[in-house]
Amino acid sequence: MAQQFGDFRPRRKENQEYLTIGFSPESLPIQERRRNKGLSADFLGDYLSSFFPGDEKEARFKREEVRSGVSYIANELLENAMKYNYGPANAGIEITMELDPGEIRFYVSNSVGPDDGDAFKALIHRLLTGEPGELLVEQLERNAEEDAEEGSGLGYLTMLNDYKARLAWAFEEMDGWQSVTTLVRLPV
Hints:
The chain has a single domain (2-113, 164-187), classed as Heat Shock Protein 90. β5 and β6 form a beta hairpin. Helix content is 44%, strand content 26%. The protein has helices spanning 30-33, 37-49, 57-84, 117-129, 132-146, 154-162, and strands spanning 2-6, 17-23, 93-100, 103-112, 166-173, 178-187. The protein has six helices and six strands, in the order ββαααββαααββ. Strands 1-5-6-4-3-2 form a six-stranded antiparallel beta sheet, with helices on one face. α2 packs antiparallel against α3 (57-84) and α5 packs antiparallel against α6. The chain is an alpha+beta fold and 188 residues long.
């Protein structure tokens, strides 16, 4: 039984430009892959910026803005997926980026352990019902006081506040764990 949060839109492969990168736990443990997640995120940013060609100053600015936003969002999504991936599930991580008129969609799929699912859903509820600017300030203050960022949602809050992204999630129950797909819709 799938459970969705936010305005989740399934992937559409027809008539779309998309790129998928997969990380398999078979070749190298996912936790060791965290070292190169930034490389993958930058690659996605560089790849997508090629769809905004032009020599004019405005086009170059838009291309750099898109590249920077894509790199940031992909890096945050991969960091979360790799950090919280449930090892015993032996499931890989996949990030897909789709280019749609007016927006870029990121789909990141990973596994979540039985103990992490409820806490993650509580964070999701907070993100979807709160005001992004207020939540961001509250979380920054909390991080400064507690000197802890674990599970803070700061990356998601930055996506909502600074990039005006829209977030959604889909959970699917598996055998003792959950598969979660995070969708981020970045307006361009």
